Amino acid sequence: MKTIVHKADSRGFANHGWLQANHSFSFASYRDANKDNFGALRVLNDDVIAPKMGFGTHPHDNMEIITIPLKGELKHRDSMHNSWESIHPGEVQVMSAGTGIQHSEINGSQDEHLGLFQIWVIPDTRNVEPRYDQKSFKEADRKNKLQTLVTSMENEVDGALKIHQDAKISRIDLGAGQSFQYDLKSDNHGVYVMVVYGKVTIENEVLETRDAIGVSETGAFSAKAKEDSSLLFIEVPMRF
Question: Domain Pirin N-terminal, which positions (predicted)?
């Protein structure tokens, strides 16, 4: 088994006033040659956006983009949709940028900060037709059990959103003292685990809120909650 630990305070940080951004991997002005990616996982940003502020229209291509709001209201508009789409905590948004897309993202609230994770996964197929989807997932469905949010186009998981990569994104909320074994898809897959909140032990590493661990070269690993905790799993091919 191979592991790499990224403590919360080791992430890149940018204070733009209206945007407080934490970068698990190299992004924008933050550069760390040891943190360019974890397999096909290219970006994991933990952003807090001030009321009424956001990202103006900007382009993307050939990237699978997954957004998970944690608090507040995200509003999204792109070159495939003329109207603003609202995404709230409990929902997940996916966008295949493919041949190219323009989009805008803003905080839809007048007075509440917006918190979100944005994940970029390198696709296994380039220049696909751009696509967009979003879906609501019940919090109760991840209590002490794995809730699959995103899978590959070829993986028939009921209710999961789809992306162009042999990846899986999932969550679990563990009660204090509860344990969970995560089984990987193949020898070529690794899992990047972000502690959304709480305190857990994974392979003898004690991890707290926003700490992360990358696990690879194994078929399975275990997590045990030392207190009520929520975990985000991002499983991706390590060679692609």
Answer: 11-121
